[in-house]
Amino acid sequence: MTTPRTFRIAAIPADGIGKEVVAAGRQVLDALAADSTGGTDAFALDWQEFDWGCEYYARTGKMMADDGLDQLKDFDAIYFGAVGWPTVPDDVSLWGLRLRICQNFDQWANVRPVHFLPGVISPLRKADDTELDWVVVRENSEGEYAGLGGRNLSGRGPGGEVAVQSSLFTEVGCERIIRFAFDLARTRTRRKVSSVTKSNAQQYGMVLWDDVFKRVAAEYPDVETESVLVDAMSAKFVLRPEDLSVVVASNLNADILSDLGSALAGSLGLAASANLNPERRFPSMFEPVHGSAPDIAGQGLANPIGAVGSAALMLEHFGLPDQAARLNKAIEKTTAAGVLTRDVGGSATTDEVTKTLIDALTP
Ligand code: ATP
Ligand code: MG
């Protein structure tokens, strides 16, 4: 019998349904770990939970501890719920916790898979029931979310207050995310990368991106490529998604496209994501794409599948692809059996889906 590899994970459930889905994900992961003993890829998890978020803010005036990053830096990964609550301004909660972690731990690659699940009705599912499966790779460190600009600038425009919001594109930033997308494409059945910009209207940063894309593409002759404008890509997501494999885009464009992708798959509640520091100098962070959903929080209605899918991405990051596949298989068995929360047309509770997922781990 092999000794299990132990991974230290920082759990940050934070706000609203983040708490419910992180609790669910932990239960499923613990069940999987317990069942892995004896196998060649046996693993164990050592959890530490942090109570940061909007309630912590109400008590302390801070979204996380002052030395929070220091407390997190030696974990193998961060398992995150969702941040935000109506009592705290969105920019305060987001920048005070989630983006603070993303930026300081240089999690520059955000991976968001989109795929259809059996038993889930998608607005896109075609008559022939084609299996669709693509990944949005989002630049997660610069671009439109670089925070550059200001308000109360005068002297331009027709009058009134003037605000400028600039984007930042660096050659290194573009190159590393584009290269990441090509390397990911090589691991997939369909070796194709679609690059998305709006370079007909934004003539500096997006054109730099396009230039870097052409240069990097030349090093991957085995990977098919295309460059598509973001407006055209939005249409393509709906009309020809079978033509996609890896879609790489800037921070804002990929943010919008991945929400579109998860809605097309059937619900925001199904969508998983990984914020990666590919150099592994800092922990990476795994979280569902959805937010804290105050409208349904605390009612047992949250779909835990996005969080559980994010846990599968975490296991892949740990080098446990077979365990990740077991988790994804359990998700498919659960949805195929019709055990669905309300957002995907069912009436099961978060707990019922979680229990079914755990049962589905054993073949
Ligand atoms: P954020 O600003 O944090 O991205 P948001 O305002 O975009 O959040 P979300 O909280 O992500 O909104 O979700 C929008 C709506 O989708 C929710 O109000 C909720 O009804 C539904 N929803 C999101 N996630 C889930 C889930 N896991 N299970 C069920 N419904 C969900
Ligand atoms: Mg949102």
UniProtKB/TrEMBL annotation:
Top-level taxon of the source organism: Bacteria
The keyword Oxidoreductase appears for this protein: yes
The reaction(s) this protein catalyses: (R)-malate + NAD(+) = pyruvate + CO2 + NADH
Record-annotated Isopropylmalate dehydrogenase-like domain positions: 8-357
GO terms for MF: tartrate dehydrogenase activity
Keywords of the record: Manganese, Metal-binding, NAD, Oxidoreductase
EC number(s) recorded for this UniProt protein: 1.1.1.83
Cofactor(s) in the UniProt record: Mg(2+); Mn(2+)
Coiled coil: none
Primary enzyme class: oxidoreductase
Matching Pfam families: Iso_dh (PF00180)
Record flagged with keyword Hydrolase: no
Protein family according to the UniProt entry: Belongs to the isocitrate and isopropylmalate dehydrogenases family.
Protein's UniProt name: D-malate dehydrogenase (decarboxylating)
Organism: Streptomyces ochraceiscleroticus
Lineage: Bacteria, Bacillati, Actinomycetota, Actinomycetes, Kitasatosporales
